[in-house]
Design goal:
The chain is an alpha+beta fold. The two termini are about 40 Å apart. The chain contains ten helices and eleven strands. Helix 1 packs antiparallel against helix 2. Strands 3, 4, 5, 6, 7, 8, 9, 10 and 11 form a nine-stranded mixed beta sheet that branches. Helix 10 links the parallel strand 9 and strand 10.
């Protein structure tokens, strides 16, 4: 068998208005995600620390879309430059492909040089006004120059979500024996599914020095976790490997959050019930979308002692797997929780039709004024 072509479902947005509609749609969607996290905190699904961490990543995702919208603001216009459109995954995710974020990270390294070689904002505005008044022309090329200046400024000023966001550790307390407890979090833009993926791992630290202050262990932990951040790996594989490689770090819970896919009748090619729901909703522009949100969780069930050398033992975690129909063995998780976020009109169609497979999916419904309601 040959290699699978992961680009076959990619499409470039080369039309000005389609590109702007796409970014407006994501501006709307990302604006609701913090409210969804707040609803999950209310019902105990997430802790305050969880919401703080997730909120920061969601803000970075929103900032990344804002910055990319400046880069592609003049797509489809005659700018005098050879400039392609934003490439999205129209089938698997509805999000930009990972290559867009890799390019963004590379552009960040060179942003200061670009800005130094460009006219400042006041100069560009003055030139645009002169061209409009004196020549009665639309200053498309100057508008393009301004959009690129705003893009490079955003790269330097915004906190962005990159293809790889390195692990960080947050102290959350001590257990009864005095061990430090940390919430380690990191995130990637998964190249297989073109989705933002966020990891949260709760660990107990029995080392001599607190983990973030340990010059030996912390770089090793960061490198280890970054190398394991692939959607194709089961949580059990990631947690067990971490447990085996670090004798004085004890992973108690590992969660993986998949933000997306995004489904939209205007931009993605979906199949099954979601397609029918979006078609029948006949929602106005900006409300024809649904965003999936999946959380995989793996929890330590108990601890066993394992010999290490001649005279010592180390703790090893025994993780709980989903007991229903053997699915835990297949998923490598204790449980998997799925949710969808959608506007009110699409939810009304979903509630009326009640398609199979959605009864166990939690629904977050965006109502008037951006209010988010939760339905089982």
């Amino acid at each position: 068998m040959g290699d699978i072509d992961l680009t076959r479902d990619h499409v470039s947005l080369d039309d000005t208005f389609a590109t702007r509609r796409y970014f407006r749609k994501f501006e709307t969607i990302t604006g609701h995600l913090a409210r969804v996290a707040a609803e999950m905190e209310k019902d105990g699904s997430l802790s305050r620390e969880d919401v703080g961490v997730l909120g920061a990543y969601l803000a970075r995702i929103a900032a990344t879309f804002r910055t990319l919208s400046m880069k592609y603001l003049m797509t489809g216009r005659e700018t005098g430059s050879v400039f392609g459109g934003l490439t999205i995954d129209k089938v698997e995710s509805g999000f930009p492909v990972q290559r867009e974020l890799l390019t963004l990270a590379n552009d960040t390294l060179q942003a200061a040089n670009h800005l130094n070689s460009m006219p400042d904002r006041a100069t560009l505005i003055d030139r645009m006004v002169r061209q409009i008044v004196s020549n009665l022309e639309i200053p498309t090329r100057l508008q393009f120059a301004m959009s690129q200046r705003l893009y490079y400024s955003g790269l330097l000023e915004e906190k962005l979500f990159y293809a790889q966001n390195d692990p960080q550790a947050v102290w959350v307390g001590e257990d009864k024996t005095g061990r430090h407890r940390f919430l380690i979090h990191w995130a990637v833009y998964d190249s297989q599914i073109n989705l933002p993926t966020i990891y949260l791992m709760e660990v107990e630290d029995s080392g001599r020095w607190p983990l973030p202050n340990d010059e030996r262990r912390w770089p090793q932990v960061q490198a280890h976790l970054a190398a394991q951040s692939m959607g194709g790996l089961k949580l059990l594989t990631i947690a067990s490997g971490f447990d085996a490689d670090f004798n004085d770090l004890h992973p108690k819970r590992l969660r993986r959050f998949h933000v997306g896919p995004m489904y939209s009748s205007a931009f993605t090619k979906q199949v099954g019930p979601i397609r029918r729901v979006l078609e029948e909703a006949r929602a106005p522009t900006g409300e024809d979308w649904t965003l999936a949100w999946t959380v995989e969780t793996l929890e330590s069930e108990r601890v066993m002692e394992e010999k290490s050398g001649w005279f010592s033992t180390v703790e090893r975690q025994i993780f709980a797997l989903d007991p229903f129909a053997g699915r835990g063995v297949d998923t490598g998780a204790t449980r998997t929780e799925r949710a969808i976020i959608m506007p009110e009109r699409a939810y009304q169609v979903l509630a009326e039709e009640r398609p199979p497979g959605f009864s166990a999916v939690r629904k977050f419904v965006v109502g008037r004024g951006g209010r988010v309601l939760s339905y089982a």
